[in-house]
Design goal:
This protein has 308 residues and is of the alpha/beta class. The chain is 43% helix and 14% strand. The chain has a domain at 216-308: Helicase, Ruva Protein, domain 3 (Orthogonal Bundle).
């Protein structure tokens, strides 16, 4: 958790998020780290465990412009990006921006849309811009996608293409609340009704310096050696179809820097890399059995790679 006075707004953000998303402090911290590292977040879990609430909460607390898209099987790319309409008064075409033109985009149940529609977000997530009808338009700064998806075993879902998955810096799961958190939830009648009353702890102009400071956290040569050994181990592990890419390695370092920053440290420790590795790697590593890597696969990977 942040400890220095210059990080106190982040402490407030995490504390306020924990009051809404009960018993999931690790997940809320990972979500904040993802945004600090200028990444996009994928939340996969069963319906009703708080995925959408977490996205709303982070956007409100950070004071960022928020937009939500409910993905469905009949959605088209234009429903996300926007469309040009003919303005009869002026005799020309006028572009109507889609909901993607915001700072935090909640792509709710993204895997209920077809791959063609899912791919409409690729350029936005990678380049911070969209190209429609031959014209490229920049998106607001900062721009984050927080996507939720239901388990692929559920009816009406389409698996995310590998190129789409790789655009998400982190993938997290919320899971069921523990007994005490669920009891508090039952006694209070839920947490969604608290969202309108949440006050922003930051704004876009305040968040940018924190991003810059997180990116500047020192990573020693020894730490980079350790990170590289982890990445290289995934490429030689026979259980995995393929290992982590260079982009995934950069994502791991960025997330570890953000995790160290939220702890109030000025340098990255191996423990920071280990803390974020499951969220960085699980959706990028496929087992020969056809499944994604699970938490035990990542723990085994960490045990197999020494610190020196």
């Amino acid at each position: 958790m942040p400890t220095s006075s210059r990080q106190s707004p982040l402490t407030e953000v995490l504390a306020a998020a924990d009051a809404v998303i009960l018993g999931k402090s690790a997940q809320t911290r990972l979500a904040l780290c993802c945004l600090l590292a200028r990444g996009h977040l994928l939340i996969e879990d069963l319906p009703g465990v708080g995925k959408t609430t977490l996205a709303h909460t982070m956007a409100r607390l950070l004071g960022l412009q928020f937009s939500r898209i409910q993905f469905t099987s009949d959605m088209l790319p234009a429903d996300i990006l926007g469309v040009s309409i003919f303005d009869r008064e002026h005799g020309n075409f006028r572009f109507l921006p889609g909901p993607v033109f915001c700072q935090v985009l909640l792509a709710d149940e993204i895997n209920r849309a077809t791959p063609k529609t899912q791919s409409a977000l690729l350029e936005a997530m990678e380049e911070g811009q969209v190209t429609t009808e031959g014209e490229t338009r920049p998106l607001p700064e900062p721009f984050f996608v927080i996507a939720t998806q239901n388990p692929s075993s559920q009816i009406g879902t389409f698996p995310l293409p590998e190129s789409q998955l790789d655009r998400f810096l982190l993938r997290i799961e919320l899971g069921y609340p523990d007994h005490d958190a669920e009891r508090l939830l039952l006694e209070s009648g839920g947490r969604r009704q608290q969202l309108p009353a949440l006050a922003a702890r930051l704004g876009a102009q305040d968040f940018a310096p924190f991003q810059q400071q997180a990116a500047a956290i020192h990573a020693s040569p020894a730490l980079l050696d350790y990170l590289q050994r982890l990445v290289e181990a995934t490429r030689h592990e026979p259980r995995f179809i393929h290992g982590l890419s260079p982009r995934a390695a950069l994502s791991l370092l960025a997330a570890a820097r953000a995790w160290a920053f939220t702890a109030g440290r000025k340098m990255v420790l191996p423990e920071d890399v280990q803390a974020v590795l499951p969220a960085v790697a699980r959706h990028r590593l496929h087992l020969v059995s056809g499944n994604h890597a699970d938490a035990e696969d990542i723990r085994a990977l960490i045990r197999s790679v020494g610190l020196a």
